[in-house]
């Protein structure tokens, strides 16, 4: 901390006054009575301490010295030399805070009220112990002489007793509720802070990690009642009230440190805060502070040493803040942290006015422009972090003049050019991170010539830019002793760097794609690594039978040419050996590698069955055995692998069904079983897998229907691949409820029915998903890198690093009928739509042009009719199109993207289409169409005549005959009518024939 000297001075003076005052007072009294003779332990107080000890749990025997008559000699107990009274009990735990769970020496149990017999106690420290959520004892408020009380980080719980307000002599109070060992510590809380008014002598107050949400409206008034307060620490207190106008701290005339970090104020910076002229350290990081800050008066902050406003949302006004501070604080400010805001623009020249600045953090903003020259004037600078901005250009050579620099971080910018050799002049440099820029040129020994204190060096670059090379002699002996080194995507050497052998303290080694083509040297296996990353080289040879590193170690040797059998004994936590040439079976005793949390041996030549002993790996979270030659069935005894969240067994020769134990893995996020010979109905075993992100059952022999509950129970699903099976039934509409789904592959099944209109509700296909800027950063793929094989542009392709931004719907090769729903056109970011080889009818939706993200569209082998919608030509991203084997008609569009589709096969077997690239001329087709229309009209009239004849006869026949058959009276009347009609016709015919004969005879006579 930049202000540590000032803070230390204040605390020293304060503690001296704390101890000397009572000691001098008591010494004066005793000297006048018995001439200053030393006294031993008071028996009442000794018994009180023993009773207190009996109530404690002491797992490591820290209180083993608490024996004998003189309690003043016990560890953690101090007495007044003159009176023998116990004045100090200091039992804080001094455990190792660097690793979680390491609190073996922490005291616990109950706190006995026998301590009340320590009438002269003025100092009590029980911090960093573990009292497992018991309340802070109320009787602690009865120590009238107590000046120092520290119960921080000791896992107390419940309500802070207001009785503590009786400690009127208290100078130092630390009740910080956080726990260094366990982040789920019981929460200490307060409903109001009125009791603080009784602590009239208080100079130091820390209530960090105490829930003050119930006291958020009056916390400032309560604090204002502490006129002698020097330091106020209220971080992580769930505060939300921050008055903007009147100063609630008018009585705090001496306050020098205010820490209100990690709260939820959600407001702008109040102006009164910057009028506290005594302020030296101000911490408002991660307090949801927002802009604007244009009207804040900074002229009073002439004593400011530390200002931390990181992790807020102040906005573009950050430059004005820097300019304002430079006008008043250039003689005092030592630490300035404005990281993780939304600052923009170029870095101001006023940065150079902070002459005493030691630490400057402007990371994770939107600063642009070249490296600011004003920084060269900050000759006291020790820490500079400009990472995650858009700073461009080279590192200036004057960087070598900042001789006090200890930490230089320039990662994730747009910087380029050569790395200056002057960096080698930074003799105090400890950390150097230059990741993810576009460096070029050569790194030589001169760059490291004087970096004797360097412990961490990282130069991870993008695979798109590999213009940087190392040139280090094989016999070079570096001046430093590194603890971590990371180099990625730039050439280091053909042989394994021998100079690494000199780095005895090295526990993190990353050499990714650095051109090494060599066997791994034997000495490397003797290093005590926590991280060993040598992927994407040309390493060859075999691994030792035993692979053993530090507890929790991660080893990644993937994408090399390593071969032979897998190691028999593994003492690592995360092991990545994928994409090598390892062969033979997976060791049967792999279950003895009890520390394994992730195992990736994908894409090798492994055979045999999956060992049942894997069930012993109780901490296993990720297992990837994909793309090998494994056979047999999925083991049935993985019930106890409760931490398992990723299973990838795809691209093997596994058979049988999905075992029932999968139903108990509710935390499973990735289940990848595609491309095997699995069979049966899979879904009953998956019903409880409600957290799945990716489900791949493709290219197996699964059957049954896709259940409706997938859309109800798997709401987190992003990728669903069921292609190449024997699923039947309709596509359930409940799939539309999967708002995160961006890959839906149901191709090559026996699905029927229509396409659900609600597919337009797949909102993940309507918004742009941004790929992380560092998606190729190896450090973010230490869990599991999702990959999936999909058919895109007519070819089967495996997607891995960019899978999160692949948007696809493939329903091809099914028995789906009906029209293409117009609602599907709202999926504006859908990249691939394949509906080919179905029985779709109707027209292509007119608004298909709204699908501006389409790159691949395949509607071939259906029964679609009508014209190609003109709006389709506006899809400028479209580069693969197939409309063949339909009944489309009209001219093919020629504008925009359609001018690039010159392959006539994508339109073939559509007799009504015309124009380039087809040979059919649209004008000829129109004349022929007119002629065909006239012939069609004649044929149509004749058709109607014959249709009428064909339909009229049976209809008339059955209308008459049917009624005669069904009704007897009608039948009798009908036949009577027929008889009478016949007789009449006979008489009429006979009469007329006789009449005709007479006329003919008469004509013959007179002729």
Beta-strand content estimate: 15-25%
**Inertia-based shape:** globular
Oligomer: single chain
Mean pLDDT: 86
CATH class of the domain at 1-264: Alpha Beta
The structure class reads alpha/beta
State the share of residues found in helices, binned by percent: 10-25%
The number of distinct helices, counting runs of at least 4 residues, comes to: 7
CATH superfamily of the domain at 1-264: Ribonuclease Inhibitor
Q: Report on the biggest sheet.
A: 32 strands, mixed
Task: Supply Rg.
Answer: 42 Å
In the predicted model, the low-confidence regions spanning at least 5 consecutive residues are 22-37, 96-102, 771-781, 929-947
CATH architecture type of the domain at 1-264: Alpha-Beta Horseshoe
Strand elements, count: 64
What's the end-to-end separation, in Å? 150 Å
CATH topology of the domain at 1-264: Leucine-rich repeat, LRR (right-handed beta-alpha superhelix)
Subcellular location: Cell membrane
Protein name: Leucine-rich repeat receptor protein kinase EMS1
Family: Belongs to the RLP family.
Transmembrane segments: 944-966
What does this structure look like?
By secondary structure, this protein is of the alpha/beta class. Among the domains are: 1-264, Alpha-Beta Horseshoe (Leucine-rich repeat, LRR (right-handed beta-alpha superhelix)); 754-769 and 807-943, Ribonuclease Inhibitor (Leucine-rich repeat, LRR (right-handed beta-alpha superhelix), Alpha-Beta Horseshoe); 959-1007. It is built from seven helices and 64 strands. It has a 32-stranded mixed sheet, with no helix packed on it. A hairpin with a 6-residue loop joins strand 2 (77-79) and strand 3. Helix 6 (922-966) packs across helix 7. It is globular, with a radius of gyration of 42 Å. The N and C termini lie far apart (150 Å). Residues 22-37, 96-102, 771-781 and 929-947 have low confidence and may be disordered.
């Amino acid at each position: 901390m930049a202000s540590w000297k000032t803070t230390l001075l204040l605390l020293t003076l304060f503690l001296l006054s704390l101890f000397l005052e009572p000691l001098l007072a008591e010494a004066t009294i005793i000297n006048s009575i018995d001439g200053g003779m030393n006294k031993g332990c008071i028996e009442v107080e000794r018994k009180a301490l023993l009773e207190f000890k009996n109530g404690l749990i002491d797992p490591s025997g820290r209180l083993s010295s608490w024996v004998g008559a003189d309690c003043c000699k016990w560890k953690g107990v101090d007495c007044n030399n003159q009176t023998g009274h116990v004045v100090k009990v200091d039992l804080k735990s001094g455990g190792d805070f660097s690793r979680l769970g390491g609190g073996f020496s922490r005291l616990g149990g109950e706190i006995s009220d026998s301590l009340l017999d320590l009438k002269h106690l003025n100092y009590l420290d029980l911090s960093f112990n573990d009292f497992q959520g018991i309340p802070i004892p109320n009787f602690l408020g009865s120590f009238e002489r107590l000046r120092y009380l520290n119960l921080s980080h000791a896992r107390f719980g419940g309500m802070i007793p207001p009785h503590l307000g009786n400690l009127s002599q208290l100078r130092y109070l630390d009740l910080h509720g956080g726990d260094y060992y366990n982040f789920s510590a019981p929460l200490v809380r307060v409903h109001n802070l009125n009791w603080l008014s009784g602590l009239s002598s208080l100079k130091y107050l820390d209530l960090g990690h105490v829930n003050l949400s119930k006291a958020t409206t009056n916390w400032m008034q309560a604090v204002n009642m502490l006129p002698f307060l020097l330091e106020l620490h209220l971080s992580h207190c769930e505060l939300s009230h921050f008055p903007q106008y009147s100063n609630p701290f008018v009585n705090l005339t001496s306050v020098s440190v205010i820490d209100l970090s990690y709260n939820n104020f959600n407001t702008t910076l109040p102006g009164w805060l910057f009028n506290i002229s005594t302020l030296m350290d101000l911490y408002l990081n991660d307090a949801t502070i927002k802009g604007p800050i244009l009207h804040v008066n900074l002229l009073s902050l002439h004593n400011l040493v530390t200002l931390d406003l990181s992790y807020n949302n102040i906005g573009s006004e950050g430059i004005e803040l820097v300019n304002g501070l430079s006008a008043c604080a250039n003689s005092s400010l030592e630490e300035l942290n404005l990281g993780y805001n939304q600052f923009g623009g170029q870095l101001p020249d006023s940065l150079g006015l902070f002459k005493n600045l030691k630490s400057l953090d402007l990371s994770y903003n939107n600063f642009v422009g070249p490296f600011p020259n004003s920084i060269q004037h900050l000759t006291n600078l020790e820490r500079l972090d400009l990472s995650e901005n858009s700073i461009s250009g080279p590192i200036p050579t004057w960087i070598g003049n900042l001789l006090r620099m200890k930490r230089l971080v320039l990662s994730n910018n747009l910087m380029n050019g050569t790395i200056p050799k002057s960096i080698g002049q930074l003799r105090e440099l400890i950390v150097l991170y230059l990741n993810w820029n576009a460096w070029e040129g050569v790194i030589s020994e001169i760059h490291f010539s004087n970096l004797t204190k360097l412990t961490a060096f990282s130069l991870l670059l993008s695979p798109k830019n590999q213009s940087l090379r190392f040139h280090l002699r094989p016999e070079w002996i570096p001046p430093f002793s590194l603890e971590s080194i990371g180099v990625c995507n730039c050439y280091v050497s053909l042989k394994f760097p021998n100079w690494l052998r000199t780095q005895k303290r090295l526990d993190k080694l990353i050499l990714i794609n650095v051109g090494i083509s060599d066997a791994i040297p034997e000495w490397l296996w003797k290093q005590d690594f926590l991280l060993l990353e040598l992927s994407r080289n040309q390493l060859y040879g075999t691994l030792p039978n035993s692979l053993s590193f530090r507890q929790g170690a991660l080893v990644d040797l993937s994408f090399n040419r390593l071969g032979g059998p897998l190691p028999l004994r593994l003492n690592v936590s995360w092991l990545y050996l994928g994409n090598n040439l390892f062969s033979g079976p997976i060791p049967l005793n792999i279950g003895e590698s009890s520390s394994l949390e992730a195992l990736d041996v994908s894409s090798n030549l492994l055979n045999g069955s999956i060992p049942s002993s894997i069930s012993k790996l109780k901490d296993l979270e990720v297992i990837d055995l994909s793309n090998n030659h494994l056979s047999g069935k999925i083991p049935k005894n993985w019930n106890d692998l409760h931490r398992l969240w990723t299973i990838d067994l795809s691209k093997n020769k596994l058979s049988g069904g999905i075992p029932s134990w999968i139903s108990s893995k509710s935390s499973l996020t990735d289940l990848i079983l595609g491309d095997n010979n699995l069979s049966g109905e899979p879904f009953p075993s998956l019903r409880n897998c409600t957290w799945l992100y990716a489900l791949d059952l493709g290219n197996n022999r699964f059957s049954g229907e896709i259940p409706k509950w997938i859309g109800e129970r798997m709401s987190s699903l992003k990728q669903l691949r069921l292609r190449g099976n024997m699923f039947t039934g309709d596509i359930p509409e409940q799939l539309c409820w999967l708002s995160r789904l961006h890959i839906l592959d149901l191709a090559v099944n026996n699905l029927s029915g229509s396409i659900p209109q609600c597919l337009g509700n797949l909102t993940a296909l309507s918004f742009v998903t941004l790929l992380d800027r560092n998606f190729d950063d190896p450090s973010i793929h230490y869990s599991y890198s999702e990959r999936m094989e999909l058919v895109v542009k007519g070819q089967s392709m495996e997607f891995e690093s960019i899978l999160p931004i692949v948007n696809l719907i493939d329903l091809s090769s099914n028995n789906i009928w009906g029209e293409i729903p117009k609602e599907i056109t709202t999926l504006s970011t859908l990249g691939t739509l394949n509906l080919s080889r179905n029985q779709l009818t109707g027209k292509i939706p007119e608004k298909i042009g709204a699908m501006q993200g389409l790159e691949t569209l395949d509607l071939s082998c259906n029964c679609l009719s009508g014209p190609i919608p003109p709006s389709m030509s506006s899809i400028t991203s479209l580069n693969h199109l197939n409309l063949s084997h339909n009944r489309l008609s009209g001219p093919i569009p020629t504008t925009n993207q359609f001018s690039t589709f010159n392959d006539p096969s994508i339109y073939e077997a559509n007799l009504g289409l015309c124009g380039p690239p087809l040979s059919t001329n649209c004008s000829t087709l129109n004349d022929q169409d007119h002629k065909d229309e006239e012939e069609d009209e004649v044929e149509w009239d004749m058709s109607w005549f014959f249709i009428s004849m064909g339909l009229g006869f049976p209809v008339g026949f059955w209308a008459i005959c049917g009624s005669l058959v069904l009704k007897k009276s009608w039948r009798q009347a009908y036949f009577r009518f027929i008889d009478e009609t016949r007789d009449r016709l006979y008489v009429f015919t006979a009469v007329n024939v006789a009449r005709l004969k007479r006329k003919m005879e008469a004509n013959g006579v007179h002729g």
